[in-house]
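Task: sequence in, structure out. Protein: Peptide chain release factor 3.
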Amino acid sequence: MSVPAPRRTFAIISHPDAGKTTLTEKLLLFGGAIHMAGEVRARGQNRRARSDWMKIEQARGISVTSSVMTFERGGTVFNLLDTPGHEDFSEDTYRTLTAVDSAVMVIDAARGIEAQTRKLFEVCRLRDVPILTFINKVDREGRDPFELLDEISDMLALDVAPLNWPAGMGGEFKGLYDLRSHKFLKPDGTGTNAAGATVQTTGLDDPQIDALCGPIAQRLRDQAELALGGYATLDADLYRRGALTPVLFGSALKDFGVEALIDALAEFAPAPRPQPALPEAVEPTDTQVSGFVFKVQANMNPQHRDRIAFLRIASGKFRRGMKLRQVATGKAIAINSPIFFFAQDREIADEAFPGDIIGIPNHGVLRVGDSLVEKDDVTFTGIPNFAPEILRRVRLGDPTKSKQLRTALTDMAEEGVTQLFKPLLGSQWVVGVVGQLQLEVLISRLEAEYRVAASFEPSPYETARWIAGDPAELKRFIDDNRGAMAEDRDGAPVFMARDSWELNYVTQRETAIRFSATRERA
Ligand code: G4P
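Result:
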């Protein structure tokens, strides 16, 4: 059997505007996926329009552009999973992070750690996802490199190991000095899209440094020496355990440090890791094909009901045409036209390996959290639904459209875009979302895809918890709180609280009931 190329499956986490899109483009550019480079930037309608030419997308009416981007460099296959970049945190982002083995954290050199970076970092930490840091925009005036490194170290409680050092920033910027190889990367004067020229030096004492850095040569020497002495040296093991972050300075816009980032990912980012599952974690070396759905994306075309389920392969060698079993239902699914996300093109996949993502077109059978297996049942864990932070009642513009509304809400709940609760009393559905933006997306999709005019009105409830416990206790609790009870789309009981005070009060009093802010699909 042929040995698959090494895989690196990762995501980029950042605060909006730090440069994620630019870095993504450049990674694809250096990864040999040149024509994607201009396309990642196209946003909204534009992005959809551009991707329309892609055959499979056209046939299916689904745009999957830039959800997953695969590129290859130096014999390593990189799967870059896109996380939505908006301020609101979404469940989608969290779930995407369940499907990666590592993350690249992009920080703006002038701004340091920002709110969204931190939030996403915490999610990575929860799952022990190792992080490589890219301090971007050194071509502009930025903060002092030491200050930035100390901030990362203090705020995130991580050891930092700088791999390179900027010779000046902004107008003074002379290039990047690689602290390990002593190579100096200097701008070659041709502007954007030029990687610069590499000069091999013998170290900081090399007289070439004077020629390269002019008046700031001594500063580079002093700072780099201080950095080498004052910060941790790279320990790949500590990094993979999530205790240390290697740091690269660079400029995505000017192509500086991007190749070094790819090389660093290839050199020490983890290969596909064992995936948490029941009855036991699935090793990438297990022979049976298994994987889990971490994202479902609906069509952009209202005429089609097709979806694409994104399956992370956890083990085995997947071959096109295979039948996999959906563990939750026992149903066998023939996967005849999986989509492989080579950035050059959407290709029909012939085979995929652990760490790879395949897109499976389906009519709504596959759901977020689904485990698919070739032979023996395993249930992947840790792909949660999150208790919504915003609950809203849905008000229909045209009362004759209630059937369409129900279909639409169910569809979107299955995609994992929203959660849908049916109160035990009353007939109005309650939708739950984790962030405000999701409500806006919901309204516009209801109109565009389902021709349903709807609005949201405040619900008396603010937050919800799944409940579990001894059946008799559970029944008593539900009877006592009928007005605040609902069922989720799988019929699981949900307690809705008016505010956090009430939630606190009830959870403390009801010791026989387990309240849970997340629910994994059984
Ligand atoms: P995001 O996806 O993280 O939100 O960030 P994006 O890449 O869109 O970058 C945000 C802005 O920062 C863009 O400028 C982009 O050109 C700029 N930028 C990204 N990387 C660098 C860098 O290394 N150096 C400098 N100087 N700028 C960088 P914009 O004006 O908002 O957009 P555009 O008009 O350039 O497209």
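Residues 14, 16-22, 85, 136-137, 139-140, 251-253 surround guanosine-5',3'-tetraphosphate (CB under 6 Å).
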